[in-house]
Amino acid sequence: MVHRIGFGYDVHRLEEGLPFRLGGVTIPHTSGAKGHSDADVLIHAICDALLGAAALGDIGSHFPDDREEYRGINSLLLLEKTISLLEDTGYTIGNIDATVCLQEPKIQPYIEDMRSALSMAMGIDKDQVSVKATTEEHLGFTGREEGVAAHAVALIWK
């Protein structure tokens, strides 16, 4: 059995009046992430971690932001397509561990819903998906509420 680990990172600017989607869940907030898709940084980081672990490139190479078919797309669909790519190469997910960096909104009340949505999209058990959050003590672009970032690590095996 071959085990592989991948790391993913994504960041998006926050803008007032946009919907805020994170981990496949819409969270009430005055600002949302701006991007070509629904700008779900958590899912994008997870996709990059999975693709990187399998040496399949990155999310931008599979779902480029200059393609109209991905404009506004629900990132859960991108995650499902990423899982198909993994399955085509014979990989299975061991677990996902992800951290979201943002000052506001507080996402703790939504984490279980995120874990459910993510595990369903990946076809794995909820206990294989960890989602955590941290503020950055008002430091940097996330601390100033200018953006949101996410880090993810994935373990896969064949």
Structural notes for this entry:
The protein is α+β, with helices and mostly antiparallel strands. The chain has a single domain, classed as 2-Layer Sandwich (60s Ribosomal Protein L30, Chain: A), CATH 3.30.1330. The chain has five helices and seven strands. The strands form two sheets. Strands 4-1-7-5-6 form a five-stranded mixed β-sheet. Strands 2-3 form a two-stranded antiparallel ribbon. The longest helix has 14 residues, at 75-88. The radius of gyration is 15 Å and the shape is globular. 42% of the residues are buried. The mean pLDDT is 94.
Q: Could you say what the CATH topology is called?
A: 60s Ribosomal Protein L30, Chain: A
Give the helix tally.
Answer: 5
Decide which structural class fits the backbone. Answer: alpha+beta
- By CATH reckoning, the class would read Alpha Beta
- Helical content class: 25-40%
Spatial ordering of strands, largest sheet: 4-1-7-5-6
Which blocks of ≥5 consecutive residues have pLDDT under 50? none
- How much is the average pLDDT? 94
Terminal Cα span? 6 Å
Q: Please report which band the strand proportion falls in: under 5%, 5-15%, 15-25%, 25-35%, 35-45% or over 45%.
A: 25-35%
Task: Give the total of beta strands.
Answer: 7
CATH superfamily, by name, is 2-C-methyl-D-erythritol 2,4-cyclodiphosphate synthase
From the alpha-carbon coordinates, what is the Rg to the nearest angstrom?
A: 15 Å
Structural domain count? 1
Second rung of CATH, namely the architecture: 2-Layer Sandwich
Task: Give the CA-based shape.
Answer: globular
Instruction: List the secondary-structure elements in sequence, H or E.
Output: EEEEHHHEHEHE
